[in-house]
Design a protein that fits this description.
alpha+beta, Arc Repressor Mutant, subunit A, three-stranded antiparallel β-sheet, three-stranded mixed β-sheet, binds zinc ion
């Protein structure tokens, strides 16, 4: 288990896996063993994980899966909003509320690497207004804010 500060992280994991299982059942999506294994690896902490770390973890837990299989499973998880890619870190985090949102924003601590997912429809509306003004057809909105989380800025003050 990595050094996440979340004090109820076991709950985070089980709640999310349950939710994803339910969503997959409702939508008729197949939550295969490999997809579940990858989601669990990503959810080990709130810190983003790189694709090659996922690959090496998968081979550690004795999956004979080839990289393309892992990447396809990762694509599945992203397409369905169970996992998000943090572009600035080229890494992945689990979605903490896959039922509730379409556009989300990330605040990323550059010291402890924890990523928090925030949803705010007013931000989405404002961005869409700008897109309309520029008649720009968007595929995906991703907003990432880098900085220091509360815990880490406290430490640096001491
Ligand atoms: Zn947690
Ligand atoms: Zn999300
Ligand atoms: Zn931090």
């Amino acid at each position: 288990m990595s050094n996440t500060r979340c004090d109820k992280h076991k709950k985070c994991i089980s709640t999310t896996i349950d939710q994803v299982e339910k969503i997959c059942a409702e939508k008729g999506l197949r939550f295969t063993k490999i997809r579940k294994a990858i989601l669990e690896i990503i959810w080990e902490s709130h810190q983003p994980i790189k694709a090659y770390d996922i690959l090496s973890r998968i081979s550690n837990i004795n999956y004979s899966e080839k990289p393309p299989t892992v990447y396809r499973a990762l694509d599945f998880l992203m397409e369905n909003g169970f996992v998000h890619k943090i572009n600035s870190l080229n890494s992945y985090v689990g979605c903490s509320h896959p039922n509730e949102h379409s556009d989300c924003y990330f605040i990323i601590c550059s010291i402890c690497n924890e990523v928090q997912e925030c949803c705010d429809s007013t931000i989405t509306k404002t961005i869409k207004k700008v897109l309309n003004k520029n008649t720009f057809k968007h595929n995906h909105i991703a907003l990432e804010v880098n900085g220091q989380c509360n815990d880490c800025s406290d430490v640096s003050k001491k």
